[in-house]
């Protein structure tokens, strides 16, 4: 990590008046022609503002008394909920901005956030961006890596969930001031217990400040935020976001969704995740819609999920946001379709969407499922299947307006429609790079963002992702750097080589598994390796589900571990286990192989009547497969 934050973006232009331009009223995008129509107009007609706060203020002027934010604090539909109109919401953001500026009088405020999906997270995020730089941090990291991120962003202020019985974030905060020299102030949100000396209550401090318009509408820096990405090995990897990056992603998403002031979005994603912050959060607010926060445990709250339909019905939810694993969980609930009558679409992304899972939800409840492709480095959005267009199996939809998309062959030339290559994108939502510019190589290339996805375009410009060129493991919507697991394993004195890959899972999409080979003459049991590595892996979701010891790991001609062969092995074993658990092992077998486009899965049937059972078994998996009679 370099000692200075590298910006590398031009100064922001002067602010426009804080009123919503009529051309920002959402349009319904249903075709590539609609996208071209938008792009034929000047960019300022698409996005009239250059600051997030100015855009929120403009929405508040149009819809001052409409509800902007509603918080379900207790998973009981009978308990009153907290809510804010747009006028009150913007006033809270301004108060938070003034608080941060008062706390940091001698420079640009840098505010680290350790918060679940609660209203205070919105006030703190947008308030910090109004006067400085926000750094939302994944509170699932261990204390050491939380401290490393706070140091890396040079935060002077931390806003964190206070001591709480249901979410254990506060232990990560208690020692931060000793470990982070720049940190001066710690603010606690909604603590269940008395606060330690020197820690102040966020709500009380915010309330001391005025909620009127800020004196200056020019950002102190073109940067709005630093979002962590790419695992936790080495120094934190922070992607820079400008105000324009976030506005383009959010407003582009709103147009793809066709969001209006009549929409209600159930958004359980935390704001350290770009989907929670921009794809589902800011996009809805900019359109004048309402965001509903489903408790601070979000959709991991079992009591809330048990009454999911009641909450959707009570709030008149029109848009659901969920990763594919939650879609599978919803299908397992005894939901009555009439409880979901207000819902017009279910929006998903973060991990590959199994076509059969989407189709099953659509068939059961009559609600369209729409896919999203995005990255932290693109403020959460690259492409979206528009709600007004039909779902195309395997498609991630069209790129946002004003984006350039290219699929590149191995020789660097553009691929033809239908031809696979590496996906590259360029546009107003693409980050200017990482704070440590040495890390840009391989991801940022002369304004292009290299996604690392193996993809192709159809003749209409839709994006189809068929695999990943990079090794990242996606568990739910959680990106896991395999190097985090591999480095921990290589600490063990018996381990010679180690490799981690994703194994298909019906609920999580992928689970991390690891393969090792041992040094000559050494012996160790897999369970011993599991116990050994757990303390070295900062993220609980990254702890490998299983560690296998092989005589040797497959390698390329130059001695590099050949991970596609390990993915084949992991997939073969996972699917064979599924057949066994379903009582189908005597009626079918699975064969997995690799191809340039990704894994090839084929089920061979000894009993033709087993086909429907096999297809039902594969419904939650984002894997293409064939079924044929055994020879």
In short:
Helices cover 28% and strands 23% of the residues. Mean pLDDT is 88; it is low at 1-26.
Secondary-structure topology with pairs:
Elements: H1 32-39, H2 43-46, H3 52-62, E1 67-72, E2 82-85, H4 86-103, E3 110-114, H5 119-131, E4 133-136, H6 143-152, E5 157-161, H7 176-179, E6 185-189, E7 200-201, H8 202-207, E8 223-228, E9 238-242, H9 243-257, E10 264-266, H10 274-286, E11 290-294, H11 302-306, H12 308-315, E12 319-321, H13 324-332, E13 345-348, H14 355-365, E14 369-373, E15 383-384, E16 398-399, E17 404-408, E18 421-426, E19 444-445, E20 448-457, E21 463-468, E22 473-475, E23 478-480, H15 482-490, E24 495-505, E25 509-518, H16 526-533, E26 546-549, H17 563-581, E27 588-595, E28 598-605, H18 611-617, E29 625-629
Parallel strand pairs: 1-11, 3-4, 3-5, 5-6, 6-7, 10-11, 10-12, 12-13, 13-14, 25-26, 28-29
Antiparallel strand pairs: 1-2, 8-9, 14-15, 15-16, 17-18, 18-20, 19-20, 20-21, 22-23, 24-25, 27-28
How would you explain this protein's 3D organization?
There is one protein chain. With 631 residues, this protein is α/β, with parallel strands linked by helices. The chain folds into 3 domains: 22-456, Rossmann fold, CATH 3.40.50.12780; 473-561, GMP Synthetase, Chain A, domain 3 (2-Layer Sandwich); 565-629, Histidine-containing Protein, Chain: A. Helix content is 28%, strand content 23%. It has 18 helices and 29 strands. The strands form 7 sheets. The chain has a 9-stranded mixed beta sheet with strand order 2-1-11-10-12-13-14-15-16, sandwiched between helices. Helix 13 packs across helix 14. Residues 1-26 have low confidence and may be disordered.
């Amino acid at each position: 990590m370099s000692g200075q934050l590298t910006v590398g973006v031009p100064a922001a232009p002067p602010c426009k008046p804080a009123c919503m331009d009529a051309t920002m009223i959402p349009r319904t995008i249903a075709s590539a022609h609609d996208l071209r129509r938008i792009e034929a107009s000047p960019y300022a007609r698409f996005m009239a503002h250059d600051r997030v706060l100015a855009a929120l203020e403009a929405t508040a002027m149009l819809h001052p008394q409409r509800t902007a934010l509603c918080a379900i604090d207790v998973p009981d539909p009978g308990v009153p909920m907290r809510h804010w109109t747009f006028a009150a919401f913007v006033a809270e953001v301004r108060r938070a901005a003034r608080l941060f500026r008062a706390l940091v009088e001698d420079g640009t405020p840098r505010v680290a956030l350790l918060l679940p999906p609660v209203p205070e997270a919105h006030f703190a995020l947008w308030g910090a961006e109004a006067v400085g730089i926000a750094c939302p941090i994944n509170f699932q990291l261990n204390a050491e890596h939380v401290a490393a991120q706070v140091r890396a962003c040079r935060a002077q202020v931390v806003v964190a969930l206070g001591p709480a019985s249901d979410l254990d974030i506060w232990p990560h905060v208690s020692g931060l001031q000793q470990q982070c020299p720049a940190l001066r102030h710690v603010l606690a949100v909604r603590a269940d217990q008395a606060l330690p000396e020197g820690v102040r209550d966020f709500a009380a401090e915010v309330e001391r400040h005025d909620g009127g318009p800020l004196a200056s509408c020019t950002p102190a820096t073109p940067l709005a935020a630093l979002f962590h990405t790419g695992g936790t090995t080495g120094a934190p990897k922070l992607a820079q976001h400008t105000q324009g990056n976030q506005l383009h992603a959010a407003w582009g998403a709103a147009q793809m969704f066709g969001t209006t002031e009549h929409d209600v979005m159930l958004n359980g994603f935390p704001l350290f995740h770009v989907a929670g912050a921009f794809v589902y959060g800011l996009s809805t607010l900019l359109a004048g819609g309402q965001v509903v926060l489903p408790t601070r445990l979000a959709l991991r709250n079992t009591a809330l999920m048990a009454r999911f339909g009641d909450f959707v019905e009570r709030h008149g939810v029109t848009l659901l946001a969920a990763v594919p694993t939650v879609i599978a969980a919803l299908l397992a609930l005894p939901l009555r379709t009439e409880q979901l009558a207000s819902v017009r679409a279910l929006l998903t992304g973060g991990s590959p969407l199994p076509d059969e899972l989407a189709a099953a939800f659509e068939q059961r409840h009559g609600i369209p499922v729409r896919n999203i492709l995005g990255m932290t480095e693109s403020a959460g959005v690259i492409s979206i299947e528009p709600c007004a267009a039909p779902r195309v199996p395997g498609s991630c939809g069209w790129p946002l307006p004003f984006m350039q998309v290219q699929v590149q062959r191995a020789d660097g030339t553009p691929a033809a429609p239908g031809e696979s290559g590496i996906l590259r994108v360029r546009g107003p939502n693409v980050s200017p790079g990482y704070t440590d510019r040495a890390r840009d190589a391989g991801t940022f290339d002369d304004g292009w963002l290299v996604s690392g996805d193996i993809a192709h375009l159809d003749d209409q410009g839709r994006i189809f992702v068929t695999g990943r060129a990079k090794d990242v493991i996606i568990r739910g919507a959680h990106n896991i750097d395999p190097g985090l697991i591999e480095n921990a394993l290589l600490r063990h004195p018996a381990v010679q080589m180690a490799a981690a890959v994703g194994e298909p899972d019906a609920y999580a999409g992928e689970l991390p598994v690891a393969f090792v080979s041992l040094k000559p003459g050494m012996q160790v049991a897999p369970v011993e390796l599991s116990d050994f590595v757990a303390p070295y892996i900062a993220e609980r979701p990254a702890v490998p589900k299983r560690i296998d010891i092989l005589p040797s790991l497959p390698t390329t001609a130059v001695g590099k571990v050949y991970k596609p062969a390990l993915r084949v092995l992991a997939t073969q074993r996972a699917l064979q286990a599924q057949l066994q658990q379903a009582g189908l092992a005597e009626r079918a077998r699975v064969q997995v192989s690799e191809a340039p486009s990704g894994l090839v899965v084929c089920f061979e049937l000894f009993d033709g009547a087993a086909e429907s059972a096999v297809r039902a078994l594969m419904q939650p998996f984002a894997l293409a497969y064939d079924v044929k009679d055994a020879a």
